[in-house]
Design a protein that fits this description.
It contains two helices and no strands. The chain has helices at 12-29, 33-51.
């Protein structure tokens, strides 16, 4: 069985929320490493969501 990926479309608010989250953690930790880890987790979650939307 081949799983088909669906496109995940971001709203402007979702994009802004993600940027705000990244900025918060960057300012709190004075390092971009945690923000990069969060970005990887977000992308992994999006990949799973695009394959299993329900």
């Amino acid at each position: 069985m081949v799983l088909r990926k669906r496109e995940v479309r971001w709203t402007q608010k979702a994009v802004q929320d993600e940027l705000n989250i990244m900025e918060f953690w960057y300012l709190r930790n004075q390092s971009v490493s945690y923000s990069l880890n969060l970005e990887r987790l977000f992308n992994k979650s999006l990949d799973l969501l695009s394959i299993h939307p329900k």
